[in-house]
Amino acid sequence: MTEPAGNDVHVRLTGVTRAFELSSGAKLHALGPIDLDIRRGEFFGVVGPSGCGKSTLLDILAGLSSPTQGTVLFEGKPINGVPDGVGVVFQEDASFSWLSVHDNVAFGLRRNGVDAAEVSRRVDYAIGFMGLRDFANAYPAQLSGGMRQRVCIARTLVLQPRLILLDEPFGALDQQTRLLMGEELLRLWRETGATVMLITHALDEAAMLSDRVGVMSARPGKFIDFINTEWPRERDSRIVSDPRFGAITSRLWDKLRVESLKSMGTASPGASA
Amino acid sequence: MNRRILSREGWIRLAVIVASTAAFEALCRAGFIPRTAVLPPSEMATSLWHILRTGEYNKDILSTLQNVVASAALSVTFGFAFGVVLHALPRLRATVEPLLASYYAIPTFMFYPVFIVVFGVSSRAIIAIAVLLSIVAMIASTLTGLDRIPRVLRKTALIYRMSTPKRAVLIDFPAAAPHLFTGIKLAFAYAFIGVIASEFILSGQGIGYAIAYAYNNFDNRNMYGLMLLVILLATAANTALDTIDRRLQNRSRR
Amino acid sequence: MKRTGDSLLLILGILVLWQVLYWLAGDIALTSPTGTAEHLWKLLGTARFWGHAAETARAFAFAVAISLVGGVALGVLLGLNRTSGVVSEPILIALYSLPKVTLYPLVLLCFGLGMSAKVAFGAMHGLIPVTIFTMKAIMQIKPVFWRTAHVMRLTPRQMAFTIALPAVLPEVIVGARLGFSLTLLGVLIGEMFASQRGLGFMIMSAMGLGDMATIMAVAVFLSVFAIAANALLMWLDRAIPR
User: Fold this and answer.
1) Are B109 and B59 in the same domain?
2) Do B159 and A81 touch (CB under 8 A)?
3) Count of domains in chain B?
C-alpha cells in the first residue's frame, strides 16, 4: 500500500479567497488569495497566528464552505460539496456519545451499505491500529480525551480516505499525549499512503510531522513561507533531538512571531474565527 | 458500575429517613401529636395495606394513573413538536422566549375553573390543566437539547454527506436525547402534581378526590393511607426516572 | 428597541388568541379580553376586592419571608458540609416533586383554618426550591476560591461577605424567583380550599356561582402581578455582575 510522495498534484488551489459578511454589513476579508499545490501522498503542515483563517482553509478543502473567489481542484475535479475520498478530524471531540467505540468506527461503513462481515473486518483493523482493542465496547464518556480523539481518527481511517484533513486534532491534549498521537498519525500516513494536511498551532508538531510546512500570515491569511523538512519517511518523535529540528522550529517561529504580534495588535472583537 | 448496593451517603440518607420516621412514630405514640391531627406512620402503612388489599379505591387509583399518563404523553408529544418548530424559527422563538421564562410564575391553577366550565367536571378538564402545567417543561427541554448539539457533530454529518432528515434521525435526535429525557421526567412530575391537585380542588374521581372526600368526612384512616400512597408513588416514579436521567447525562458528558 | 417590539407583539398575540377562543367557546366559558378588563376595572373600584387582596398579600408576605430566610439558612447549613449536602439533595428533590396539595388536610389539622394554615402551605411550596438552589450554589463554589481566600489570609467573616456571598448570589436569586412563584401558588391554593377570605377564596366562590367574569378578572390580575414580580427578579439577576 505504501507509495512514496509522488510529484503529481493531489489538491490545487488557485487564487482562493474567502470573505465573510459581518452583522454590521461590512465585509471581513478572512483568507487569501491562496495558490497552493499539495502533492499526492505529501504530509503538509500548516501553522499560522490565531484567527488567520486556517480553519476556513480546511473548511474549503473539505467542501464545508465554498471560496468567495478562486478554484479548488481535488484529484483534478472542482470541489462541490464534500468530495468522496476526503476524511476530516476536528479539534473538538466529535465522537458519538450514544454509540460504543465499535459502533462509532463502524458508522460510516454501515451508512455506505458495506456488508456486515466486511464492516467487522475493517473496524477490527482500525480499532487495533489505533490501540483501542480493549475499549471496543466502551462508550466515549468512559474514555480520556486522547482516547476519544483516537476513536475519531479510527472512524476517519476506516473509510480509507485519500485526503485526510486534520484541524488541530491534538489541541486539547497534553504535551506527552500529543507527541505520541503524532507518532500514530505518522504511522497511519505511511501505511495508508494518504495525503495529509495538518493544521496546528504547535510549531514542534508541524516541524516533526510534516514533509513541508506552510506558514500563514495574520488575517487575511496568505502563505508567506514554505519549509521543506526533508525528513525520512520513517520518522518518529525522536527527531526532536536532531539539530535540524531546532533550525526548522526557529525558522518557523521567526516568521510566525511577526505575524502573531500583528494579529494580537490588530485583534478586533470577533477575531477568533 | 459500583458493586456496592449503596454509597456511604446512601446509607446515611437511609438512616436519616428511618430515624425521622421512627421519631415521628414515637411522638405520635407518646401523644405529643394528637391522633385527631396525624396518625402514626405505622397506622398509615396498615391503612394503605388495607386499601390495596380490599381494592376499594382501585377505580380512583386507576383513574389518576390514566390521567397522569395521558397528560404526560400529550405534553411530551406536543411539547417536543412545539420545541422543534420554535427551534427552527428563531424570530418566533425570540418573541415567545420571555413567556417561557416567566411561565411558571403564573398561578396556572387559577384557570382550572375555566376548564371546568368548558369541559364539565371530567377527566378532560383535569388533563387540560395538567398538560398546561407540564408542556412548557418539555418545550424548554427540547430547546435546550437542540441548542446543545455540538456544532462539530453537525459538521461531521456534512462530512458523511447526510441529508437533513438522515441527520435529524442519526445525529440530532440521539445527541439531544438526554435533554429530551429530562423533559419527559419533568413532564411526568408536573402532570402528577397537576392531576392530583385538580382532583383535589374539584372532581368526582381520583386519588386526590378520595383524599378530599375522606378529609371532609373525618375519615383520617383512609385519608392518611391514600396520602402515603401518593407520597410513595411520586417518590418511586421520580427516583426511577431520575436514575435513568443521571445515567444518560453521564453518558453524554464530555 | 427590537426587544420591546417583540414583547408587545407577544402580548398582542396572546390577546388575539384569547379573543378567538372567546368567539369559539362563547360567553359561558370565557369572557373576552375587553370584557375581562372592564370587569377587572370595576372590581378594582370595590372595597371587597381590596379586602381579599390585602388578606392574600398578608399571607403571601409572611410565607415568602419564611421561604426565603428559612430556605437560604437551611441551604447554607446543608451546603457547607459536603456529606450533608449529598445526603439531603435527593430527599429535598423528592419533597419538591411531591404533589403537596395532598398534604393540605395535614396542614389544616395541625394549624386549623385561617391565616397560619395558608402561610404554612405557602411556605411548604416555596421553602424547598430556595433551599435546593442555595445548597447547590454553596457546594459548587470553586475550591480555588477558598484556597485564594486562605492565601489572602481573609477572616471567616471576610470570606463570607467577599467570597461566598457574591459567588452564590446569582443562584440564590434564581431559587428565590422560583420560591416566590411557588409560594404565591401555595397561598392561593390554600385559600381555595379552606379560607373565607383572600383572592383564592374569591375565585372558588365565583366558581360556585358560575361567575366567569370574576374568575377571569382575578386570575388575570394575579398573572400580571406574578409576571411583573418575576420580571423584576429576572432584571435583578441580570444586574449582578458575574
Assistant:
1) yes
2) no
3) 2
What number of other Cβ atoms are within 10 A of residue B150's Cβ? 16
Give dist(CA A65, CA A82) in Å, integer: 9
On whether both B101 and B218 belong to a single domain, the answer is: yes
Q: Which of A169, A163, A166, A215 is nearest to A38 (CA)?
A: A163
Cα separation, A38 vs A34, in Å, equals 12
Torsion of CA B99, B100, B105, B106, to 10 degrees: 60
Residue contact B197–C184, C-beta within 8 A = no
Angle between helices B41-54 and B8-29 (to 10 degrees): 90
Interface contact B38, partner C, CB < 8 A: yes
**B159 chain-A contacts, CB cut-off 8 A:** 62, 64, 82, 86-88
Residue with cell 451508512: A111
Q: Do B67 and B6 fall into the same domain?
A: no
* pLDDT recorded at residue C5: 73
B218 in Cβ contact with B36 (< 8 Å) = no
Q: Is the pLDDT of residue A6 over 60?
A: no
Tell me, what's the pLDDT at A269? 44
Q: What is the pLDDT of residue C205?
A: 85
In tens, the pLDDT along A131-176 reads 888 888 888 888 888 888 889 888 888 888 889 999 888 877 778 8
Same domain, yes or no, for B27 and B45? no
Name the CA radius of gyration of chain C, rounded. Answer: 22
Contact flag C109-B105 (C-beta cutoff 8 Å): no
pTM of the model: 0.82
Q: What's the average model confidence in pLDDT over B41-59?
A: 88
B123 and B16 housed in the same domain: no
Does residue B83 share a domain with residue B27?
no
CA pair distance B76, B124, nearest whole angstrom: 17
Least CA distance to B190: which residue of chain C?
C97
Rg (CA), chain A: 19
Q: In chain B, which residue's Cα lies nearest the Cα of C88?
A: B13
User: Higher confidence at residue A259 or residue B232?
Assistant: B232
State yes or no: pLDDT of A3 exceeds 60.
no
B83 and B151: one domain? yes
Residues B254, A97: C-beta atoms closer than 8 Å:
yes
**Chain A residues inside the 8 Å CB shell of B160:** 107-108, 111
- Distances in whole angstroms, Cα of residue C92 to Cα of each of A251, C74, C126: 62, 11, 12
Check contact A-C (3+ Cβ pairs < 8 Å).
Answer: no
CATH number at residue B75: 1.10.3720.10
Structural contact between residues C198 and C58, judged by C-beta atoms closer than 8 angstroms: no
CB contact under 8 A, B159 and A87: yes
d(CA C20, CA C14): 10
Domain that holds residue B188: 41-252
C90 with B105: Cβ contact below 8 A: no
To the nearest whole Å, the CA of B205 is away from the closest chain A CA by 43
pLDDT exceeds cutoff 60 at C30: yes
Q: In what helix (H) or strand (E) does residue A34 lie, and over which residues does it extend?
A: strand A27-39
Of all residues in chain A, the percent with pLDDT exceeding 90 is 4
Q: Do A96 and B174 touch (CB under 8 A)?
A: yes
The answer, for B159 touching chain A at a CB cutoff of 8 Å, is yes
B130 and B62 housed in the same domain: yes
Listed residue (A259, A160, A189) closest to A4, CA to CA: A189
